[in-house]
Amino acid sequence: MKALILVGGYGTRLRPLTLTQPKPLIEFANKPMVFHQIEALVAAGVDTVILAVSYRAKLLEEEIANQANLWNISVHFSVEQEPLGTAGALSLVKNLLKDEDDKPFLVLNSDIICNFPFRQMIDFHNWHRHEGTIAVTKATEPSKYGVCVFDEKTNKVDRFVEKPPEYVGNNINAGLYVLSSRMLDRISSRPTSMEKEIFPQMAKAGTLYAYILDDFWMDIGQPRDFLTGTRLYLHFLHSNYPEMLNKNRNVRDVMIHDTAQIGEGCIIGPNVVIGSGVEIHDGVCLRDSTILSNTIIHSHSWINHSIIGRKCIIGNWVRIDNVCVIGDDVIVEDELYLNGARVLPHKAISVSVFEPDIIM
């Protein structure tokens, strides 16, 4: 079976982390984001993965090629020289996806984290045997998204309503699809959107069905949602795979890499991920945060609801709060306060940032 991952562009919403690394390789819960997806695809029986990329493709190619043999899959890269939209990305790989027996294939957006029920989606698709299956999830603020309206008895999609001013439902497109090969005939080589053009056509034709996700889901393409997604994912592990979480801490939902070093008197959690080679010195407090690999946090610093990049040095008695995102290789001197700061890579911070700001 084949799958296409829509990796997309520059990852601007996750800057400054994506200034030094392509977004799919940013570590989420101590694993590159795209690895979560590929491993779930492999578990569902996928043996061919195609990645539609347009930015820093070579670095991504090298990293994934190193893993492909371990996954025992074939990996292909489709490089867009100019943006073609979500459907345009499919048009570039039609020959790879097309199947004479109309076997279905999977498509997913690269920013999604969930429990990836691909096998169940495939079974549902094979049951209704139409052109497409779209995963939907309930949103607390559906007016921010496009709402998918479908028959609750048959799950047949009726229509899509973009950012509705009035309530029409709360099921939104979750960015996971199972598509029959024959639907590729709908796609041209011009820039085209699956969500705004192709799926509404399929809904009008009565050939698109909704699969309802009943577990956690998050688009982690921006910092606040990345942290929310981390919390949801750690809670999912706590309930289903507790062995993947740290067993030596009395606070729930903490993931600490085996190579990380933790000092005395630290308070860690809830909802904290500590990456490989990280050093946490005595008396540090971490809460609702991700600390990426090879960073050093000196004594008695306090980090809340923030993301710290790779190879950073955080001084003594530093306070970092309010969705700060610290780029790679940043030095924060002792006794500073950072509030909602976005710090670009390779900077040395010697003064406090009291109001949310971008430090260039």
From TrEMBL:
Broad class of enzyme this protein falls into: transferase
GO molecular function per UniProt: GTP binding; mannose-1-phosphate guanylyltransferase (GTP) activity
| Record's keyword terms, sorted | GTP-binding, Nucleotide-binding, Transferase
Query: At the top level of its lineage, which domain of life is listed?
Result: Eukaryota
Question: Pfam families, from UniProt?
Answer: GMPPB_C, NTP_transferase
Q: Which residues form the signal peptide?
A: none
Q: Name one GO biological process term.
A: GDP-mannose biosynthetic process
Looking at the record, the residues that make up the Nucleotidyl transferase domain are 2-232
CDD domains from the UniProt entry = M1P_guanylylT_B_like_N
Q: What metabolic or biological pathway is this protein involved in? A: Nucleotide-sugar biosynthesis; GDP-alpha-D-mannose biosynthesis; GDP-alpha-D-mannose from alpha-D-mannose 1-phosphate (GTP route): step 1/1
Enzyme Commission identifier(s)? 2.7.7.13
**Which InterPro entries does the UniProt entry name for this protein?**
GMPPB_C, GMPPB_N, Mannose-1P_guanyltransferase, NTP_transferase_dom, Nucleotide-diphossugar_trans, Trimer_LpxA-like_sf
Positions of the Mannose-1-phosphate guanyltransferase C-terminal domain: 252-359
Assembly behavior: Component of the GMPPA-GMPPB mannose-1-phosphate guanylyltransferase complex composed of 4 GMPPA subunits and 8 tag-335/GMPPB subunits; the complex is organized into three layers, a central layer made up of 2 GMPPA dimers sandwiched between two layers each made up of 2 tag-335/GMPPB dimers. Catalytic activity of tag-335/GMPPB is reduced when part of the complex and binding of GDP-alpha-D-Mannose by GMPPA induces allosteric feedback inhibition of tag-335/GMPPB.
Family to which this protein belongs: Belongs to the transferase hexapeptide repeat family.
Write down what this protein is called.
mannose-1-phosphate guanylyltransferase
Q: What is the protein's species of origin?
A: Onchocerca volvulus
Q: What is the lineage of its organism?
A: Eukaryota, Metazoa, Ecdysozoa, Nematoda, Chromadorea
